[in-house]
Design brief:
The complex is a heterodimer of chains A (106) and B (121).
Chain A (H helix, E strand, L loop, with lengths): L3 E4 L2 E4 L5 E7 L7 E6 L6 E5 L3 E2 L7 E6 L2 E6 L9 E6 L5 E2 L3 E5 L1
Parallel strand pairs in A: 2-11
Antiparallel strand pairs in A: 1-3, 3-8, 4-5, 4-9, 5-6, 7-8, 9-10, 9-11
Chain B lengths: L2 E4 L3 E3 L5 E8 L8 E6 L5 E7 L6 E3 L7 E6 L4 E6 L8 E8 L8 E4 L3 E5 L2
Parallel strand pairs in B: 2-11
Antiparallel strand pairs in B: 1-3, 3-8, 4-5, 4-9, 5-6, 7-8, 9-10, 9-11
Classes of the chains: A mainly beta (106), B mainly beta (121).
Chain lengths: 106, 121
């Protein structure tokens, strides 16, 4: 199984900050990676697919990069609506989610 | 507009079974794989498996082999997931989700609202 490790587990930041979340795969997954945002009591929302493609309707302050085993999700300027939990998901071989990163208000 | 609507919350006793439904609309049912993901209280997302609504092919995470069964009804565009031999650790919100493209494995672009399954004696 391909395991996904996200870091950090928790991130404290302020509105307007630039933040980066990292996801590492236990073996190469090429660019078969997605990022999701989840708020309490709601289903996850797709933000990025194929490592760097922005899902329709998602603000351009979200971006993804990486390939192989290391990937990042960057939010260029945090907005109040962005405080949530973020998950990466690999879909190269079967599928697996990272453990999540909670983005908190500093 | 694509919609995935799941059945309501369930409370089950240990050892029982539960079946969760996921009714889809707004797209060609047989063209998009459906995945199931669960989330225990306060925990992260756990991928469980997938079903091809066209031919019914399934693929389950090894830990669920023998306890999880995914099926579909093409006449109602509905996918089902049954979990048997329930234990307290199966208490979670269960989500169905549609694959973004015409692949078995890909990102998940539309999700159901989730179904809370509580296992308690």
């Amino acid at each position: 199984d391909i395991q996904m490790t996200q870091s950090p587990s928790t991130l404290s930041a302020s509105v307007g900050d630039r933040v980066t979340i990292t996801c590492r795969a236990s073996q190469s997954i090429s660019r078969w990676l997605a990022w999701y945002q989840q708020k309490p009591g709601t289903a996850p929302k797709l933000l990025i697919f194929d490592a760097s493609s922005l899902e329709s309707g998602v603000p351009s302050r979200f971006s993804g990069s990486g390939s192989g085993t290391e990937f990042t999700l960057t939010i260029s300027s945090l907005q109040p609506d962005d405080f949530a939990t973020y998950y990466c998901q690999q879909y190269s071989s079967s599928s697996h989610f990272g453990q999540g990163t909670t983005l908190e208000i500093k | 507009q694509v919609h995935l609507v799941q059945s309501g919350a369930e409370v089950k006793k240990p050892g029982a079974s539960v079946r969760v439904s996921c009714k889809t609309s707004g797209h060609t049912f047989t063209s998009y794989y459906i995945h199931w993901v669960r989330q225990a209280p306060g925990q992260g997302l756990e991928w469980m498996g997938l079903i091809n609504p066209s031919g019914g092919r399934t693929d389950y995470v090894q830990k669920f082999q023998g306890r999880v069964t995914m099926t579909r009804d093409t006449s109602t565009s509905t996918v089902y997931m049954e979990v048997s031999s329930l234990r307290s650790e199966d208490t979670a919100v269960y989500y169905c989700a549609r694959v973004k493209d015409y692949y078995d494995l890909h990102s998940l672009d539309y999700w159901g609202q989730g179904t809370l399954v509580t296992v308690s004696s």
